Each structure stands twice: as structure tokens, then as C-alpha cells.
Amino acid sequence: MTEKKWVYLFREVDQAEESVGGDWEDVRALLGGKGSGLADMTRASVPVPPGFTVTTEACISYLNSGGKFPEGMWEQELAALRQVEKETGKKFGDPTNPLLVSCRSGAKFSMPGMMDTVLNIGLNDETAAGLIKLTGNNERFVYDAYRRLVEMFGEVVLGIPDEAFEDPLAEYKEKKGVKVDTDLTAEDWKTLTQLFKRVVYEHKGFEFPDDPYEQLKMATEAVFKSWFGKRAVDYRNAAGISHDLGTAVNIQTMVFGNTGWESGTGVAFTRDPATGEKIIYGDYLLNAQGEDVVAGIRNTEKIENLGNDMPEVYQEFLDICDKLELHYKDMQDVEFTIERGKLWMLQTRTGKRTAKAAVKMAVDMTNEGLIDRDEALLRVRPADVDTLLHPYFDPEAKIKAQGEGTLLATGVNASPGAAVGRVYFDADSAEHMAKEEGQDVIMVRPFTKPDDVHGMLASKGILTSEGGATSHAAVVARQFGVPCVVGAAAVRINLEKHQMEVAGVVVKEGDWVSVDGSSGEVFLGEIPTVSPELEEQTDLLTLLSWADELCSQPGIRQLPEGWPTKGLEVWANADYPADARRSRQYGAVGIGLCRTEHMFFEPERLPIVQRMILADSVEGRKAALDELLPYQRSDFEGLFEAMDGFPVIIRLIDPPLHEFLPSMEELLEETITMEVKGETEGFEEKQLLLENVKALHESNPMMGLRGVRLSIMMPEIVEMQVRAIFEASANVTKKGFHAKPEVMIPLTGHVNELRVIQPRLEEIAKSVMQEKDVTFPYKFGTMIEIPRACLTAAEVAGVAEFFSFGTNDLTQMTYGYSRDDAERNFLLKYIEDGILPNNPFQSIDRDGVGRLMRMSVEEGHQARSDLEVGICGEHGGDPESIEFCHMIGQNYVSCSPFRVPVARLAAAHAALKHQGISIAEDK
């Protein structure tokens, strides 16, 4: 029986590809993003230091077995190490010609800094002495590398706090009068190496392991374990990455950027990850190791300056970047080291980017012929579109702030956007104040580390005094759309006092600041923000137009005859003409929900509505309704004009009548107070109003007299509304507009409810068109929000011409939850404890609520082949729910106007993902 292969040399990428059937995504899953990138670069003859990858399968096996290497893995790792020795001409643990290696994590999906790395494995007192001879007695370089190994091994493998090493280093530098690490001498690093070894012994009770093989074995285990480290778990939760993928371990020959000023290291992107511009963007340091750049411990040089320091190396680097981007057809995030004038590539992976950059790159790469439109659409997440519509600082307010001298500091504009909040100086406080106290938080640190990620995710903005555009803070902030300024060198942070100081100005914990991640500026106090205009974002408009074109293609869905064959349309929920106009600007092609009751709450109308409710006869109620009719008609005219030629679904009155009256508690308190004080003026009227409110009181209003039930019990209300709808339609049609009214009867539970009320309303519609001598298309349908309506959808579709799912109420009634009570009392715990996989009010519960919806669509179409089906609940703007609506054959989704651009892209994603799949297969 063939032994399972747990380890692949970088040059064995063809073998790895063959083992998973030739699918590159499966190679990435097996070798991780870093390992597959190194292997692919090796195959493409890019200069990569030799090495090998321990697979993610080995990690999963290790974790599932309670911390035991899978059988044969360690032996394969040693065999691969011997091959690396042959390729390099060096020997691991050999005092005369030692091979040193790094041990790095690398999951399928990039998680910058979230898991662990150990450099310079293989150093001990003997190999250090040998390396000094090999480097021409460069003791400073060797002991700098040695102390790094002890420090990283102590922190990563042995779990010793960072401060146990950082504090003695800071104290030593202060004692020596040294500001930067590069000013320390060989003797200094030698002393610090011994000092760090003593730290290990004091914290662990045993000596730092001298055996190189023990170092490698323990480092491999540490990387495996880091998959379930807190920061990695928090990051995956925020990024939506599965917890069962595991991480690969990459063992790679060390090359050194800290051997002198002819060496260096850097991180770069093949395009600007903040703006998307086609320029090399990154940082480097001479005489440094990679962690110095990524961690932001030293302030870096811009990558273009490398052209002055090392012109030939820089040109070779640019050529490799072009080659990699052409090969991967995407922007690459690369790490490199220059060892004594020789360029080595240590990593390539698809680069994290801001929302703005993602859109620009997708459009530019399509125009360059690098990718096609379908790929461009998939490159941009719906969440990116949402981010692009986030606020920025009001230009006039910002100019005023600059004029008033409140500009506090400037740094690198690492992640765009505007953020205003209170300052906190550690991740735990930032998370606590944001989550527990509901504050808007700006987290301020000298530089961030992976352990800070929970605070970063909870913050509105981030500020660091150190680091560059590729530092940890910058990369994480860009990925999650958090405005961020890094490297604000003028900021002096005192973590013990919880304050920072700039040019004599002290900012204490809890003070307000405003961070502009687009310009790199930080201001004292609060600056107002404004929302960006979609019309200004030409690249986004181009991308969304491609999404619309894709979804409008006939045959994009394989559905039965009479069902929609195009992709989902995106409509909007709009109650007023201004909302409708905004919806059209954002690309909506219909109104999926106009809530007529919202119009009743207008100040000039509410007294009439209350008079109608309190009327003691049908005649009195009709008199009040006659006063309301012109208001309603005017509202609808504005909607039809704004949506000229597009359908407008108007929901008839839905809530119970008591919602339009003062609360019973308020009235009771007022009448008691008046009685106690002996006030008589208005007392009888107040008491009469209280009696009427008591009469309308229901134990469970959600399931009481509302929706279609109210229409049947008081038909004159909806009769007025339908007359207003059709008079408005007739009036705008005569003015040259194209009205397409669709009347929605809410809360149907039994088909007989529709059979009672719908014919009466249809007669009014026909009557108005006869009176006005005009015709236009119209429909009558119902809102599906009661489980029984789903179960009897075939009967309901025999009367209703369209279905619109009200998924909020449908979810409440399916689960038996009151949404407000559930979210306040137990729903969050249910999700945290895994009782529910997610919040069913945010994404459709496909197994329960979704099953009812699918049944409704299928049975509804059996009764009426051209049945129009949509959704108008909050789920209509959720990408996962939009995908499900596409899968079950709906015509459209309807969401708030501001979510329309997000929904347009999500609809295109669903169409591409499920293209050519029949509804029978798509379950």
C-alpha cells in the first residue's frame, strides 16, 4: 500500500497537482496559499529559496488526533530536508556549513499575520560560530539572527509573552543610548542573545533547545496549533473563512537581508492596494529581516527608492512582478529578500485590497484583456460595493478643521474612509467600549500585532505611530474596510498613561479624534461625514452595468416554461417619490414594496386617520377616508412618475389600527393625572379616546386584526386606497407617463380571504379606468408571510397574480420568534453557541423558511405558469439570501434604495455561480 504523502518539495508541484486531479484550487487547499505560490514560482523559474510544504491534511490530522503527527509525516519532513540540503550544498545542524530554515504558516485563504512564523531555525552556539566564519566574521549579522530565533521561538513555540523580550531590548537600547536596532553592535546582539535565553529559562524552567531538529519539530507543531489561536479564529470569523481547512507549514531555506547594507528585505504589491492604480506599491528596508517590515517595527522606505539603492536588483524585481501578475491574472502581494546583492522571492499571493481598489482593478484588468467581464464581476464582493457607499469627511468641515489648527498628525494613508470616535490604546479596551458600551472607537497603537485583531475589527478607525503601507495594521484594515493611518511618526504614545502627545497637545483615553484614511490625516475632535454619490464612481458604475447585462441575458437560468429565464431583477422598497427617484439612480427597475401606512403618519394626515378609526359608523369612517384619498392619490402619482415604465407594488394597509393612536399606557397616565389634579377641560375627550384604545387592544397584535383581515372587516379603507392607486395611475398615464401598478394584499393565510376581498378591489380598478377612459397594465397579488399560505400556494396562486415574500414575518411565524424579543434575549447566544448557524433575520434560513419559499414558488407556478415572484423583506439586500432567491426561481428581489447597488452585484454573482444549473439540481 502506497504511503500517504504529507510533504511536497516546492519543485514537486506537478505531483501535488496530479494528486488532487489537476484543480489548482484543490492544490491551494492542500498546500495553502503560500506553499502553492512558492511551488508555482519555482515551476516558473522565479528565484525562490529551496524548501517544502507540509500539507493542510497533516495539520487537520494533527489537530484531530489531539496533537500527534500523522504516521510517516515527520520522516517525510526529514527526507525533504535532506533534498533541500542537496539543492543548497548546506547541511542542517552542521557547524561548518549550516543550513538555516524558516517555518511559516500558510492556509488556503490569506490571513496576514494571524498564524505563526519562526525564522533562523538551526542556529545554536556551534552553528552560529560556523556561520560567522562563512560570512567573513560578520558576528553582528549572526547574533542578530540568533537573538531573533530565541525571541520568536520563545514567543511562538513556547508561548512566552512578547513583552518578556521587548522590554529588556528597549531597556538595553536606552541604557546604550541607541534609538534603532541597526545601531547595535555585534557584542550587543551577543549579549542580548544570552539575555533572551535566560528569559526562556526563567519562564519555562528549561533551556532553549540547542538541537536544530528539535527546534524544527516544535516549530512545526506550533504552526499547526496556531490554526486555532484566538487571533486566527477571530480573523476567520470576521472574514467568513471555514474553521476546518487547516494550515500548511512551509519550511524554506533562510536567505538574509540583514548581512549588511548590500542586503535588504521588503513587501510589495504589483498594484496599489488602496487605489487600484497600476503602480508598484510597497516598502523595503536595507540590512533587515522580513519581520521588521511586516511588523512595522522600523519605519520603511518606499519601494521605488530601491531603484536608487540597487538599480539592477530593482529592475529584476519589476520584471518578476510583471511576470507574476500576468501568470496569476491578478494583483500579487510579494515578499522578497536581497542577500548580498542577490534577489530572492519568498512569497506571492493574491493581494488584499480596498473596495475602491478591487473595483478599479477589476475594470482595468478587463480593459487590459487580462480577465473577462465575468471574472471581473466575481473579483468584487457585494460587501465592497457597500463599503464604497460609506461616508467621507464633509469637505468644507475638513477645511475648517484645518484652518482652526485641529490637524493633529499625518501618516501613511493605509486604508481609505472617514472614521470618528473615541481614542483607546489597547485592543481589549477598544473591543469592550465598542461592543459593551456602544461607543465609536479609534484604536491607537505604536504598531499593531496579530493579537490586536479583535480590537481592530471592533474599531471604526485605526492609528499607529509606526509602520508602513504593508504593515500588519494596514493590511488588516484594508481587508475589512476600516479607515487607517499608519506611521504617524510625530505621535508619541504612552501606553502606561493611556494617552498620546503631538507637539505638546495631549490626547487622553476617551477623547474624540477624526481619522481620514484616504489622506493620512488625523484631527482632534469630531468632523461631520457625508455619504458618497454613486454617480461619482465611474468604475463602479461600469462594473454594475456589466452585472445588469449579465442578469438580463435570456437563458442564464434553466427553469421550466413560464418561469423567468433571465437573472434576478433588483427592485427597491420606497414609500415616497424621493425614495423612488433615489432607487432609480441606484439602478432599481421596480418598486417591490410601497408601505401605504407610512403615509398615514404624516402630521397633517394623522388626525384624519385617527378620526377615521374612532368613527362610530361606516358613514363617519368613509367621510374621513374621503379626506385622505387626495393625499394618497398625490403620493402615488409621484411614485408612478418617478418609476415611469417600471412596476410599482403598493401594499394595502397592514398594521393594526391601534398603531395610529396614542399608547394605552400614555393615555391612562394622562387621565389619572388629570383626575388627581381636578382638571376638567378635555378630560371627557381623553377618557373617550382611552376607551376606544382599550377596545382596539389585542393580546397579540401581530396575529390579530391586521392585513387582509382588517381589509375584510373594514373594506372601505382598502377600497379608498385602491381608488387612489388607480386614479393616480390614470392621471399620470394621461400626462404621458407609463404607470404599472401592482396591488398587494398583505397577510393572506387562506385563499378564501383573497376570494372575498380581491374581486371587490378589482371592480374599483375597472371602474376607475372606465371613468377616466384610460387603460394600463395592472396586477393584484399577495404578500406571502404566513406558513399556511406557503403550504397552500397552488390555491392562492389561483387568485393572486403575484407573490411577494415578506420574509421578516414569515421567519417570525416559522420559528415562533418575536424578532425584537429574540434578538434582545437569546438569539445572539444561540448563534454564539452554535444552536443556530446564523441569524435567520439577516440571511434566509434555507432549510426551514427557505423550504417553505421553494414550495410556494413551485406550487404557485403549477397553478399559474406566469406567476411573478419576489421578496420585499430585509433579506432582499443580503447577498446570501439573494443567491437563494435566484436558486428557487424568483423574478426579483427588493431592498432599501441604498442596498440596490449591492444587490445588483450579488444577483450577478448568483447568476454566474448557478449558470446552466436546473432548479431540480440546484437544491
Question: Your description of this structure?
Answer:
The chain is an alpha/beta fold. 47% of the residues lie in helices and 16% in strands. The protein has 38 helices and 33 strands. The strands form seven sheets. Strands 14-24-23-16-17-18-19-15 form an eight-stranded mixed beta sheet. It has an eight-stranded parallel beta sheet with strand order 32-31-30-29-28-27-26-33. Strands 1-2-7-5-6 form a five-stranded antiparallel beta sheet, with helices on both faces. Strand 11 and strand 12 form a beta hairpin. Helix 7 (163-176) runs antiparallel to helix 8 (186-204). The longest helix has 25 residues, at 618-642. It is elongated and about 105 Å long. The model has no long low-confidence stretch (mean pLDDT 91).
Please bin the fraction of helical residues: 40-55%
Overall, the morphology is elongated
Count every helix, treating DSSP H or I runs of 4 or more residues as helices: 38
Instruction: List low-pLDDT spans.
Output: none
Distance between the termini: 38 Å
What is the number of strand segments? 33
Going by helix content, strand content and strand pairing, the class is: alpha/beta
How much of the sequence is in beta strands? Answer: 15-25%
Order of neighbouring strands in the sheet with most strands: 14-24-23-16-17-18-19-15
Major sheet description: 8 strands, mixed
Rg, Å, rounded: 33 Å
Average of pLDDT:
91
